[in-house]
Amino acid sequence: MNQTINTILKHSSVRSYTNQAVSDEIVETLIRCAQASSSSHFIQAYSIVQIKDQTIRSKIAQLLDNPKHILEAPLYFVFVADLSRHKRISDYHNSDMASLESEALLIATVDASIAAQNMFVAAESLGLGGVYTGVLRNVPNDISELLNLPEYSFALFGLCFGYPSKVNEVKPRLPIKEILHIDSYDSTNSLLNLQEYNEVMKEYYSKRSSNSKNEIWTEQIANYFSKTLRPHMNSFLKSIGFKL
Ligand SMILES: Cc1cc2nc3c(=O)[nH]c(=O)nc-3n(C[C@H](O)[C@H](O)[C@H](O)COP(=O)(O)O)c2cc1C
Predict the structure, then answer these.
(1) Dihedral sign of CA atoms 110, 49, 71, 64 in order
(2) Could you tell me which of 38, 40, 214, 240 has the fewest CB atoms within 10 Å of its CB?
(3) Mutate to test the pocket of ligand 1, among 9, 12, 13 (most ligand atoms within 8 A of CB)
(4) Domain 3-169 has CATH 1.10.3720.10
(5) Angle at 42 between CA 36 and CA 44, to 5 degrees
């Protein structure tokens, strides 16, 4: 084990922060770490909007029923899956940008996500804690308008960071045997693995220091997927230029 691995393995989302400000030097380091990530075809298909203005922060929070962590985090970055730059580049070179289909959506989403996760690990290594906020996609049109996002770009999620005032216990992950397949996919023991995991999660949920509950993980997942997830996303993505 080394320090990087320890940082990664002790991850848990942090939603409560002290008032301690985060220095500009750290902010710049976080941005540089995000930018250091790999990028599909080196297209670098993301932008980051740092929300510094408290009025804009409050407006975002209001649109989302006021999550405390979004209102109070010393740092809030909105990660934008962004192909608008590539449109500007195409125009600059008098080249037609082909219609943006599923693959374009995937590469922009992947680029933005791995940049964010690089930033996340860097932040945790510096003693910060944070949480992703995919809840932004509840109201994608409002967020686009508020942040002045151009066509071919959309807010994928936000990242809150600050010095933790409360750290949650690490959540147990699925057993390795459930997610790791050697040479070909084998789901023969999947249900057994999941039942075993239900027990582990049941114990975790019942014993954790806050928000303890009596829930079955697979039931939560079945409930979650019993409804269409954010059904407005399809028409939203079409409205900003994607052909899905
Ligand atoms: C893309 C993404 C979006 C998320 N959106 C939210 C969110 O809107 N609100 C929230 O409280 N947590 C959000 N989370 C945090 C997850 O709930 C959390 O990572 C998960 O429960 C595992 O817990 P852990 O991060 O503490 O290990 C999000 C995580 C990811 C990766």
Answers:
(1) negative
(2) 214
(3) 13
(4) no
(5) 65
